[in-house]
Backbone:
């Protein structure tokens, strides 16, 4: 029986030495040391031996078990090391390959244009003000000299939230909110979203406006013209021509609309300017005395000018964008161009 055990040992050690994977070593462990393993088989026959022989054979069997276990463990480490080495070799990473990149987001073209415009006016000394998009009729209309029966309310196609409360149709209500809180001199610009019941290639129910308001002593229409011309030359380029046409707004008197020479054909006439050579870009005028009254300003002492224009329209003209909807569709192919 001892001979059997010795043989089993030699056989096992040989097998262990040749084992090339951890899986095989596990198989060997089961084959020799498992519940139905070769050593166990021998030990089962221990009962057939003389009682005095049993301890000796038993202890030899245990010794062999230990030797096999140790050898398996040693070989296991060696094989594991080799397997790891192989894995590393196989999985070698080619660090010269370019990595997977993810596109960086960037500011929306409207915000870019809004920031650029804001920057030009800040350079001139204007401060940025904002106001609520859900606005009372008082601020949106009444305090801007546009009483309820005023025909100018019709052209605004207003969204009503509830009686007396609207989505602001322009940024002009912020003029009043600023004046109520500040004493002259005042020089603010107001970027913000506005809403009108309107939807086609050049109109969206939500769009962005920029309001300007300056109040001080000795302010004239010439200051307004100079400021706006400076802005246009900065934003569209020095070669942009400007003209003012008389217009009507309830909250300015006199009022005007300002045109610039067409950004596409430079004034020669094309589809964008409807062959007129000019593009209408903003409304403006001298603050109406009635508005100063609502604000609590002394309209003998102070004069002011105000203007308002669409930021989206500015962006469309600057980059020749054919439809306002492109600005709000969130199509990345379009937006990534800016
Ligand atoms: N609020 C006017 C509009 O939306 C623009 C404007 C602003 C005109 C300030 C004059 C003065 O059409």
Residues:
């Amino acid at each position: 029986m001892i001979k059997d055990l010795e043989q089993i040992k030699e056989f096992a050690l040989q097998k262990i030495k040749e084992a090339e994977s951890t899986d095989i070593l596990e198989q060997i462990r089961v084959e020799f040391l498992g519940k139905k393993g070769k050593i166990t088989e021998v030990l089962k026959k221990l009962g057939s031996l003389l009682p005095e022989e049993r301890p000796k054979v038993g202890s030899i069997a245990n010794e062999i078990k230990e030797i096999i276990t140790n050898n398996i463990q040693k070989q296991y480490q060696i094989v594991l090391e080799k397997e790891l080495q192989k894995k590393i070799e196989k999985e070698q990473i080619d660090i010269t390959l370019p990595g997977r990149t993810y596109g960086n987001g960037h500011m929306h073209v409207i915000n870019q244009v809004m920031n650029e415009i804001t920057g030009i006016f800040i350079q001139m000394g204007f401060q940025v003000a904002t106001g609520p998009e859900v606005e009372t009729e008082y601020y949106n209309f009444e305090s801007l000299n546009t009483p309820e029966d005023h025909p100018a309310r019709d052209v605004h196609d207003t969204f009503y939230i509830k009686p007396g409360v609207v989505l602001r149709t322009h940024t002009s209500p912020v003029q009043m909110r600023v004046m109520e809180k500040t004493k002259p001199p005042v020089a603010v610009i107001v970027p913000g979203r506005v809403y009108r019941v309107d939807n086609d290639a050049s109109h969206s129910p939500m769009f962005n406006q920029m309001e300007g308001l300056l109040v001080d002593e000795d302010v004239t229409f010439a200051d307004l013209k100079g400021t706006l011309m400076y802005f246009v030359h900065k934003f569209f380029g020095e070669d942009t021509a400007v003209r003012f046409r008389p217009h009507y707004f309830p909250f300015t008197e006199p009022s005007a609309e300002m045109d610039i020479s067409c950004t596409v054909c430079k004034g020669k006439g094309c589809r964008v300017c409807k062959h007129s050579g000019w593009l209408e870009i903003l409304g403006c005028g001298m603050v109406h005395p009635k508005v100063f009254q609502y604000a609590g300003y002394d309209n003998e002492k102070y004069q002011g000018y105000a203007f308002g224009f669409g930021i989206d329209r500015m962006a469309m003209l600057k980059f020749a964008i054919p439809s306002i909807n492109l600005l709000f569709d969130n199509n990345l192919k379009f937006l990534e161009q800016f």
In short: Residues 170, 172, 211, 249, 252, 283-285, 306-308 surround phenylalanine (CB under 6 Å). The CA atoms of residues 12 and 68 lie 7 Å apart. Residues 2-90 form one domain. The two ends are 89 Å apart (CA to CA).
